[in-house]
Amino acid sequence: MHVVSALLLGVSTNLDNLFLGLSLGLQKKKLPFRANAVIGLFSAAVTALFCASSALLSGLGRLPNLVGGGIIITMGLWSLLPGKQDTGSDCYQQGFTWHETLVLGSGLAVNCIPVAFGAGLTGIPPWIAALSVGGISLLCVAAGNAIGLAATGLALHPRFFVALGSGIMIVLGILELLG
Description:
Blueprint lengths: L1 H25 L6 H20 L10 H16 L10 H4 L5 H13 L2 H10 L3 H26 L6 H21 L1
Keywords: Cell membrane, Membrane, Transmembrane, Transmembrane helix
InterPro entries: Mntp/YtaF
Organism: Oscillibacter hominis
């Protein structure tokens, strides 16, 4: 039964990762496997830590959602700033920086805290929860990124995709703040 619960935990904590990957793909940012792995490892590590120590952390309340949502909104707004929307093809073919990887990985990992905390209270073993969250994170970010990159082949102005991707990231952050 813990395996099914852990899989549901992985899916529920990673839907935002799917949309993050989509957002990046729409901005023509191909997320390398290593960067995706770092994001997945961050989420897995936080899940394991908070699942294991859930009894000690009951006072955090909504703080993880507020911090994670704020980070994601900031990244979405940052990509809308003047100078970040160059229409040259080199802007859209750029990779993903390690700084961006660490910031987004941290923001997404923070969002795992409340669910991991609850999972620990229900008795789901931390290592099973961590494997599920980390593995499904890898799949969701990669799938979203591939879908976003494929959609950029549509005959629309490149700025449209930057704005759409940034908008998705901002809405995702707002949902985290409200949720």
